[in-house]
Amino acid sequence: MSANSVVLGIDLGTTGVKVVCLDPRLGRIIAAASTTYPSYSPHAGAHEQEPAEWWAAVVSTARQVIADVAPLRIEAVGLSGHMHTLLLVDDAGVPVSRALTWAERRVGQDTARLAADIRFSERGCNEMTDVFTAPKLAWLARTQPDAMARARHLLLAKDYIRYRLTGEWCTDETDAMATMLYDVRRREWVSDLWSAAGGSVDWAPRVVRSTEVSGVVSPSAASEIGLVAGTPVLGGAGDVSAAVLGTGVVDRDQICLNVGTAAQVMGLSQAPNPGPGFSFGSASDDGYITMVSVYAAGASIRWAERALLNGGDVNTPAASAAAGSSGLTYLPFMFGSTVPRKNDAVRAAFIGQTESHGLPEFARAVIEGIAFGCAQAIEAVADVVGRPREVRVVGGVSNSLIWRQTLASVLDVPIGVVAEGGSARGAAICAALGTGHYSDASDAARSVTVHREAEPDDGQRAACADAYAAFRESANALV
């Protein structure tokens, strides 16, 4: 890598795209931009997106970042994106329908049918749920046969961007593993699973490693997006695996917590053991990631700020309430629960309210409830991968000092905040690894800056422990 070369990371998230430029020599993000795009729900439970809007957002955002770092040369591009998406296209690359995202919930009938087929869990190493690609494929086959008749290729979200950049039909191992159409241990597509889901294995994209070159930017894409034709595009990774890489988690005694709209707790494992959550592939080696989610983390804060505070910051009133919220407990299950048990039907609740509770206690209870939900998810992952010596967090909720101190005090583990971590940085690191700037994931991890902003607080430990015990008891009773 020459002195004036940098790498680009493109992360196609559920609500928008983020593009970052990483200088691997400095280990620093030197430019970043983001753009949102809409989702569509034409029917109850639907969650659809327009691939053309993905591409338009990527083009405008990438052009902004590329202009910001000129005259530095973009040496390579890494990709990340929201996992499990179903997008079918014809031979010309034209979508036969809108993309169905992980949040699609019209597929319950098809999920139940595929879940009864033991081949899926045996080969996919996960319990079949609505989030995976396979039941969406089965739903489309059942409800839109005309669209299926035009289909020739299946793409995951980030891989549509790859196709628009390079013309290649390709995905990486982490996204392939997250479809439930792929043999996780043997690392190959399974024709029988595709057929059972109503599709054809002939539609399966080529699979590469996350740090392997998948293609190069075409002249037409180069003109449109502002890159140089021939720029390598690396395999990249699904957003979960990319977030682990981008946060610098490379050891089994570290846990990554990505806490945005939802929270994902991720730990490294040598075997595909999902525990109470899910098992995905690692972007950095042949290992695996055990993940447990809290579906309504930042979503709970947004609700509180909208419904209780007229748009105000939830941390302001919460700061005047004592640790433990005077016995008021919030269960952050607005979109269902994963731990202590998976239950898509359960919903959020406040428990233990008395006439003495006011706005400060309600605000603090929301923040603490999110921290307790994350703590419970971390303990579930730790049961698989081992107790952590450190939890590294990234995402908007980590800006709350109350949340960080509560989590540290409950877990008795230091909380390190990675301000520049996450999936977009992980995508850029894939590009840096694939072009030889970093020798391995450990080398890349040394470039990640961690701020230890929360340690266990002896003054809050007892109150937090009591409140966490009440949370666990209430959660067990509700779910």
Itemize the secondary structure elements and their pairings.
Elements: E1 5-12, E2 16-23, E3 28-36, E4 48-49, H1 51-69, E5 73-81, E6 87-89, E7 99-100, H2 108-115, H3 118-124, H4 133-143, H5 145-150, E8 153-155, H6 157-166, E9 170-172, H7 173-177, E10 182-183, E11 188-189, H8 191-196, E12 206-208, E13 213-216, H9 219-225, E14 232-234, E15 237-238, H10 239-246, E16 254-259, E17 263-269, E18 278-281, E19 288-294, H11 298-307, H12 315-318, E20 329-331, E21 349-351, H13 359-385, E22 390-394, H14 401-411, E23 415-417, H15 423-434, H16 441-445, E24 451-454, H17 458-478
Parallel strand pairs: 1-5, 5-15, 9-12, 16-22, 22-23
Antiparallel strand pairs: 1-2, 2-3, 4-7, 6-8, 10-11, 13-14, 16-17, 17-19, 18-19, 20-21, 23-24
Helix pairs in contact: 1-6, 2-4, 10-15, 11-13, 13-14, 14-17
Gyration radius over CA: 22 Å
The chain-level structural class is alpha+beta
In whole angstroms, the N-to-C terminal distance is 53 Å
Task: State the fourth-level CATH superfamily of the largest domain.
Answer: ATPase, nucleotide binding domain
- The CATH architecture of the largest domain: 2-Layer Sandwich
CATH fold group of the largest domain:
Nucleotidyltransferase, domain 5
Number of domains: 2
CATH class descriptor of the largest domain: Alpha Beta
Helix share bin: 25-40%
Q: Can you count the beta strands?
A: 24
Number of alpha- plus pi-helical segments? 17
* Weakly predicted, low-confidence segments: none
Q: Give the strand order of the largest sheet, numbering strands 1, 2, ... along the chain.
A: 18-19-17-16-22-23-24
- Mean pLDDT, to the nearest integer, reads 94
Major β-sheet, in short? 7 strands, mixed
Tell the overall outline. Answer: globular
Strand proportion: 15-25%
